[in-house]
Amino acid sequence: MSTTTPPKAIDGAIGFADERFATAGFLRGKMKKVFPDHWSFMLGEIALYSFIILLLSGTFLTLWFKPSMSEVVYHGSYTKLNGVSMSEAYSSTLHISFDVRGGLLMRQIHHWSAILFLGSIMAHMLRVFFTGAYRKPREINWLIGITMFTVAILEGLFGYSLPDDLLSGTGLRITQGVLQSIPIVGSYLYFFAFGGSFPGHDFIPRLYTVHVLLIPGILLALVGAHFMILWFQGHTQYPGKNRAEKSVLGKPFYPVFLIKTTAFFVFTFMVVALLGTFAQINPIWLFGPYTPDSITAGSQPDFYMGFLEGALRIMPNWETNLWGHTVSWNVLVPALVPLGLIMTGAAVWPFIEQWATGDRRIHHIADRPRNAPFRTAVGMATVAFYGLLWLAGGNDVLADKFHISLYQTTWFFRFAVFIGPAIAYIVTKRICLGLQRKDAEEYEHGVESGIIKMLPSGEFIEVHEPVKEAAEAVLSAKPAAPALVSGEEEDENGIPSPASRGPLGRARRALNGAFAADDIPIGNGHADGNGHGAAPEDADGHAETEGGDHKELSRG
């Protein structure tokens, strides 16, 4: 049974702080805060660890990088570029790579940690979406996560644009075209950002300030807010034995979680360091300095920008002249529409779901993706849309490696970005329904034991065993299908309520039907998602359960 006294190793530190700030009660309680134990929760931790590595390695690089577009003649260790005119930004990056002790390693660690940061955020957000962990009371934290992801994409774009090599200069040229494509104000935004004609002498110093000061400050604030809200609201957890909406089951913060998370940080740093040591990334010396009349063949941006590159490549060459202004749809639409659809759709989804289902309850138990077919299918359709655009960003590489026409790949992706998500939606929904039927059959008839029995009639049957208690708790935790609250559909005479009339009312009923459709109940109905069993609690709302897990009452 847990107690209110923290381990002796930190009791002295808590007493020291209490004598000065009167924080003993707060700290002693937080040392026992419970964290659920599941591998998927580490996705968010990896994002935090890689962000820390980004800050540390970026600080190292700022000591030698010179954000200047002044022209110099290179004379350094990389002899193949000796005597070549280049910007001071490119020259200093070469200096970091070849003349600063550990400079190339730090550059590659910084770049790989940026890749890992964006990748882990994406994986973490997918986990949150598919399990419904964005629902009340976590809508604000979901919006913070989306904002963090969007800002991190910009930070990555600005970061790999700083060296002023031929590859990053091509990306900046695209950025300039996007700014100019914005109707009416595009040219003003372009001159404001670049300080004159492209590439100019002002943009790299401005980009550097934004990259090392403004956006990291915003990200630090968002990360801080994200974890403060997470700490206050508690964690979601997967359904199972001893799991309930009003409690969290897992390991205490000290010492179990603190030791584990420190070890995970070391593992993450080790992986990034190994990648930085043995996996070459962004070899700018092979690309050469940026010149507006050159471009690298087969150039590709980092993976998180690939879907925008793909949208740009497959967009037809459409332009419109309106009232003396040229609207370049072939640049404006790829730059704004895919990112806007994904980010805006993700941001409003929790509120659309709450409005459509009428579900305003507090949710601390995560859904199994199979039990929410509509949500899971929409999520996979979005993943397919993103993935196809990402593949389209390498249409020239695909055409070269598979020896097919570049125009054929372009036309293929123009149709695939619409057909592929529809196929993904249908297939995912059918898989979810199949898994639901399997769960219902196991709950009703048990699982196959592998034992064959012959009946007196001569018939052979396989003996089924009841599902184990832990598995039964997961199966019985399936929530009921969402339904509009009473009085918002029809009365006893079948007359629709005033709230359900009109376009909005019909849209709400249609969406509610989509969320509630294709639901296969478990047994005679649905359970409440609380699992089975409970453990006695101490004065602070903590309890120790079998296996060394701890239970903590959560807010709401």
Give a description of the structure.
The protein has a 4-stranded antiparallel beta sheet with strand order 1-4-10-9. The chain has a two-stranded antiparallel ribbon with strand order 2-3. It has a two-stranded antiparallel sheet with strand order 5-6. The radius of gyration is 28 Å and the shape is globular. It has 18 helices and 10 strands. Helix content is 57%, strand content 8%. It is α+β, with helices and mostly antiparallel strands.
Question: In terms of topology, how is this protein built?
Answer:
Elements: H1 8-21, H2 24-31, E1 34-35, H3 42-62, E2 71-73, E3 85-87, H4 88-98, H5 103-130, H6 139-161, H7 166-181, H8 186-194, H9 203-233, E4 247-252, H10 253-278, H11 284-287, H12 306-314, E5 319-322, E6 325-328, H13 329-357, H14 373-392, H15 395-401, H16 406-445, E7 447-454, E8 460-465, H17 469-476, H18 502-516, E9 542-544, E10 550-553
Antiparallel strand pairs: 1-4, 2-3, 4-10, 5-6, 7-8, 9-10
Tags for this model:
single chain; 556 residues; alpha+beta; 10 strands; globular
Q: Uncertain spans, ≥5 residues at pLDDT below 50? A: 532-536
Please state how the strands of the largest beta sheet are arranged side by side: 1-4-10-9
Number of helices: 18
Helix content: 55-70%
Number of beta strands:
10
Radius of gyration over C-alpha positions, nearest whole angstrom: 28 Å
Query: What is the distance, rounded to the nearest whole angstrom, between the alpha carbons of the first and last residues?
Result: 24 Å
Spatial shape: globular
Structural class: alpha+beta
Q: Can you summarize the main beta sheet?
A: 4 strands, antiparallel
Query: DSSP strand (E) fraction?
Result: 5-15%
Query: Which whole number gives the mean pLDDT?
Result: 86
Please trace the helix and strand order, writing H or E for each element: HHEHEEHHHHHHEHHHEEHHHHEEHHEE
